[in-house]
Amino acid sequence: MRTASGGIASALVALVLGVLVATHFGSQEAFSRSLQLETPASLTTLIANLAEKNGALREEIFDLRLRVELAQEAIASGRGSLAEAERQVAQLRVFAVEGAVHGPGIAVRVDGPFDDRALGDLVNELRNAGAEAVAVNDVRVGPRSWFGLAADRTIVLDGAPALPAITVRAIGAPEVMETALTRTGGMLGQLALIYPRTRFGTSRESALELPALTRPMP
After folding, report:
1. How many CB atoms lie within 10 A of CB 23?
2. Order of strands across the sheet with 160-161?
3. Cα atoms in the Cβ-side hemisphere of radius 13 Å centred on 206
């Protein structure tokens, strides 16, 4: 049990750190695309926000490493328990999108012109803001999910077409995620510059139910 629990802890932090790094770099796309539309004042705000996000990312990585070290020390000293191992397995299953998940969160509605890169930016920003699970309409987003455009320019998620009106639902701390998206210089502000004819809306939800990944990861 000690070896198995230690492996679970190591696998969990490796997965989480991988998702954190990937989403951090991916979420810069919208900012790059909107730079030419910014004013000097808004660029100053944008730089400050990016610095704040970098600091938050470093703190989150440090916290995750510390938690895993403490768990491994407890397991090595015989203080690790079956309950702790089961909790780690449950967390791993959420990140691996193997099962349905429910909890509070936010819904982001997108009505109007949009593309696959913008949708990826939005999902990545939610992950950066602490989202534990994300779904686009009724399709769960996994660590290896991809967005693209079909021949008719319809957005696809893992090969499945998304509806013209898109709703992105994310489970996590509603106030944190909503603030990250709507603050000055935030993701929705950047997207509004790129897509002036598109309407964006957010709402805090007390109970969301997201499905499991429909396509098993290879």
Report:
1. 21
2. 147-149, 155-157, 160-161
3. 0
Beta bridge partners of 102: 209
Could you tell me if 9 and 88 are in contact, meaning their C-beta atoms sit under 8 angstroms apart?
A: yes
Helix (H, G, I), strand (E, B) or coil at 82: helix
pLDDT in tens, 107-163: 999 999 999 999 999 999 999 898 989 999 989 998 788 889 888 888 999 888 877
What is the number of alpha carbons within 13 Å of residue 159 lying toward its C-beta?
3
| Cα(203)–Cα(105) distance, integer angstroms | 9
Where do the structural domains in the chain lie, given as residue ranges?
A: 2-210
CATH 3.40.50.150 fits 2-210, yes or no: no
Place of tokens 């939610």: 126
Q: By the 8 A CB rule, do 100 and 209 touch?
A: yes
For the four alpha carbons of 68, 72, 74 and 75, in that order, the dihedral sign comes to positive
How many alpha carbons lie under 13 Å from residue 44 in its C-beta half-sphere? Answer: 2
- Range of weakest confidence among 1-5, 86-90, 132-136, 180-184: 1-5
Residue 55 exposure: Cα atoms within 13 Å on the Cβ side: 6
Return the C-alpha torsion angle 117, 118, 123, 127, nearest 10: 90
206 CA to centre of own chain = 18
Instruction: Please name the residue that has the structure tokens 């957005």.
Output: 155
